[in-house]
Amino acid sequence: MDQYTIEHEPITSIELMERAATAIATEIMKRWDNNTPFVVFAGPGNNGGDALAVARLLADKWYNVEVFLFNTSNKLSDDCTANRDRLTTMDNISFNEVTKQFTPPTLTDRHIIIDGLFGSGLNNPLSGGFANLAKYINAAPAKVISIDIPSGLNGDGNRFDVFPNIFVKANYTFSLQLPKLAFFFAENEDVVGEWSVLDIGLSKEGMESIDSDYSILEEEQVKALIKTRNKFAHKGDFGHALLIAGSYGMAGASILSARACLRSGVGLLTVHTPLYNMPILQTSVPEAMTEADFDEFAFANVVDVENYQAIGIGPGLGQKEETQIALLQQIKHIQSPLVMDADALNILSHHKEYLQNLPTETILTPHPKELERLIGRCTNSYERLQKAIQLAATIHVTIVLKGAYSAIISPEGSCIFNPTGNPGMATGGSGDVLTGIILGLLAQGYSTAESSIIGTYVHGMAGDIAAKQWGIIGMTAMNIVDALPLAWKKLTNQ
Predict the structure, then answer these.
(1) What global pTM score does this model have?
(2) Pairing relationship of beta strands 194-198 and 214-216 according to DSSP bridges
(3) CA distances to 70, 75, 256, 305 from 435, in Å
């Protein structure tokens, strides 16, 4: 994309670097005044060139800047060399070019370090002096800003197969134009810190011309998918959903899922649940119809699903032997769109051969541990995501891999990251709510892709609304359900 912009704008490479440095320096000056001392560590490539240009721009605004350029191999990139030469003419900056011996500066908690050692083009782990420098930076009391990506981290997040794997640990990462795949993985949180994307004016035409299997969901995309309702619409127009959920002692999961389904626009909902759960459900969710399983304590009997537009199975289901038998038999009778979660996935993990029997319009909504029970243990999030993509393609289903950035994975291999949600949603029952939302959408005739995208986004949005009202520590899954109407209201501009 850099090269495309240089060739088609047109703009020179050094001018594009100046544009990037200006964006970074502007962001820094928004956050810190010129009483803050800065120390810049620049590497020999273009990431180092960016850092040197940022140092010059800060010094022009009377910031106290000390610069260390590491040129141990005497192989600076052309643009890094140009920015070095510009710095050497300035009197109000402390510039040090390290070719052999490095005498580290004294860093305090007042300092800000700018990490410009290596960017996203790094294809080897940090070693030798650079690994030691990263350790020195990480041990310092100063805050760290990384340019584009923390030095030592792969852009795709697939960590180098060495131990120990050394990275600069940033407090802030200013990513140029687009985020990196690595930012969406839990194990990189303490490396990336708080990340933001800076627009450096790369060619939009160039970006559109490059195919990517990865994207981030945006609110306007979701709004465009939501159907309007006709004035003369009636409940029959919005589908009849069946939710098979709950076991003795786990009625709450079925209640959360049922309420979420009803608050997501479904016309009719029937909940199939064990006999002992019936009074609880009829009291807690009076809008839903209930159907008792012949078993008092668990789902144990196959249900007639012919008259339902969509099926949801899993919340609070349990894993009793009779439930496992009933679930595996039930799958054979389902032709309608299906969403499966929780214990339904755990049962399938013991009978993986039944994965091939799932309808093509199936959505699986595992959290990472549930997914690994299906695909095997993974060493990192990158491997887990790749195996999830492979599973979705192999059995032709959609997978919503739940997490801080839930990944919506299509059978064709595309992966959309959802940006809504917050840590307050890491609470029991939150996944049951998502199942209910997706079930309600499927019953209304939304496709599996649309249901996954809309459902995941609105689930996170409702969680964000709940967090504002109740706080991330005190909120519960039922608060997410209660916030759903406000989320739908916002998405439909009412």
Answers:
(1) 0.95
(2) unpaired
(3) 53, 55, 9, 18
